[in-house]
Fold this protein.
Amino acid sequence: MLIIGAGLGGVGTAAQLIESGYDNIAVIEAADSVGGVWRQHRYPNIACDTPIDLYAYSFYPGTSWSTNFAPGSEILAYLRDLADRYGVTRKTVFNTRISQATWNDDAGCWRVTSRDGRTWAARMLIWSGGLLSQPTLPEIKGLDGFEGQSIHTSFWNDDIDLDGKRVAVVGGGATSIQVVPYAAKHAEKLYVFVRTPSYVMPRPDISFADIDRDSEEFASQQLERRKEWFDRFEVIAKSRFPMNGAVIAEQEAAWRKLFDEQVKDPHAREVLAPKYRFGCKRPLFSTDYYPAFERDNVELIGRGVSGLSEDAIVDVDGERYPVDVVIWATGFDPAGMMGDLTITGSQGRVLAQEWQEVPHAYFGSMVEGFPNFFMICGPNGGGASVTDMVEAQTRFILDAMKQAEDRGADILEVDEAAYAAFNDDIQARADASVLVQGNCVSYYRVGGTGKVFTHWPDTIEAFRNRVKKEALSGVRFRASDSAGPASV
């Protein structure tokens, strides 16, 4: 069995598979260590915007947390510790980027090739490269001619120094709300370009003392907080799928209270107030984002960017703002989640072509026409608690493999009719949700306004129940004609 990616999903999946007795595993990772986005992203103030009690895996909650909204360095340390404790690290091949994976119908296995020409044969292939792993840069003029520093937040490095500089931050989403307060404190002048604002909710921070972390009481409190946050996010999910205007209005009122307390300037109120319903885009948590715009050195621009000159950033109205550093907090391209990886399934079917109009999957994990291939948090496999989704999808993989063993089968593939019915149901549910009805453009949808392809349009509990009760009914099991490799 081969797993592509050693980030949160890959490490968590591998750990659960190893714990369940599947020891013949190899994990292929492009970087030199585990961690995924938490290894790659090093921008200032990076932290989890989901409470860590819920973000950490239920089977390994961790204890080395200084706060409930854990900084990125602590999450990276947690993932490395998790990988070491469950034996994932020793099964990982580092500094290796996979370029293609091709299913061999005759041999009944996957042939996986790295950029440097190495190959692996695997009966089972699991992709866990990350839904939000491909950075998005705007297509604007002058990027190559800008003489200052221009960097996407994913590629932050130690050479970026904002002290005394003229800085622009472009974006109003999850990354921006963490970077802007830092930039406001260090830059001589900060321009923040927010074309579409986010709902920013108060962040209920809790600090944890070192002496308490290894106690039974701390572990018990973790479980209590995890359940509280899980239930809270389930209520939000129920208001989104399908859209419940009354509950959403309550959430908007909670946002409005913070907004009215923290944002007084009329221009800032106009730019930073969302003009769509709560939940249509990703809601965020912060207590220092809105106050950053009250600083004298910060200028808020409610327009998009059209280009760069040698020493300035230019908005869509043609106004120039002289800057030394441009920080692109412009997010990621979930539709391009596979990057330059080419996956070819049965009868030469190419996954990128299958997904040309809308990325689709079965329980965010299997794709029709791609035998013995699973994904972690693939299309419509995202949820408010990503680790709970990973655990449920891993449960699906384990159940499918166990049933295959019981039947004497070594080929698993999703039934065409079940696949079509499942995805029709997904889109019907999504169409009735705030993701479609909430009047916004978001990365949840193809091209910003098309079909929803990132999120599971229901609660986490509903996903778990459907995995348990019906997922296997849509999977076909058969024996291959060739003995092939049992695993990697």
Notes: Residues 483-488 have pLDDT under 50 and may be disordered. DSSP finds 14 helices and 21 strands in the chain. The two ends are 5 Å apart (CA to CA). The longest strand covers residues 98-104.
